[in-house]
Amino acid sequence: MSVRAVLVDIEGTTSSLSFVHDTLFPYADRLLDDFVHAHPGLPEVAAALAAARAAEPDRAPLTVLHDWIAADRKVTELKSLQGAIWRAGYIAGELHGHLWPDSAPALQAWAARGLQLAVFSSGSVAAQQLLFGHSTAGDLRPLFSAWFDTHIGAKRDPQAYRAIVAALGMPAADILFLSDVVEELDAARAAGLRTCCIERGEDGLPPAHSHARAADLASVPGLG
Predict the structure, then answer these.
(1) CA dist list (Å): 121 to 10, 38, 74
(2) 55 Cβ contact list (under 8 Å, min separation 6)
(3) What's the rounded Cα separation, in Å, for the pair 214 and 106?
(4) How far apart are CA 46 and CA 77, in angstroms?
(5) Which of 53, 57, 66, 194 is the most buried (most CB within 10 A)?
(6) Is 5-16+98-219 a CATH 1.25.40.20 domain?
(7) Cα–Cα distances in Å, from 2 out to 106, 184, 203?
(8) pLDDT tens digits, one per residue of 94-114
(9) For the sheet containing 194-198, what is the strand order?
């Protein structure tokens, strides 16, 4: 496998789904009201409130945002607000980004071999950098050269991956995308990327598919 860049998902791939859903989401939900009231001039706050009002003008915007958090809505403005709340938690030492034990060594080894590393997650770029910057393995941000979130497109839309290919400036076939979500892998492959499904037993197994498979980052075919 001739790979020049590795594009990684976060939830279920480098980090556990439970950390996001059982730690990060409840933290943002619990602090949402106080954070919004304490930071009315923050761009992330203003944008999230405006998005909530535009989507459901007959309901209180904070109620809409709480509902979106509970439903894990992939709303860019909500993700940015969550990232701002998490930033405060990471800085305060109340949050530490979870990584599977194999994640940091694999990422470090790939970077040492000269592979370009990038992230594509539905969480905001700010949230991605906070997780890797305050991770249980230390600050891993220097390993990555590019960060992508839903501003570039939906993770199940091939066009998002075409935009990432353009941003990375190399042929799509030179990029390997790692994710635990089959629909995301399908979209990436439709855009010409190589793909591998990370199937961690702790997070459940995805349905049958035709992508390469690996139990963790250490066993990705061609990168081990």
Answers:
(1) 6, 28, 10
(2) 64, 75
(3) 13
(4) 9
(5) 194
(6) no
(7) 17, 21, 29
(8) 999 999 999 999 999 999 999
(9) 144-148, 116-120, 5-8, 175-179, 194-198, 212-214
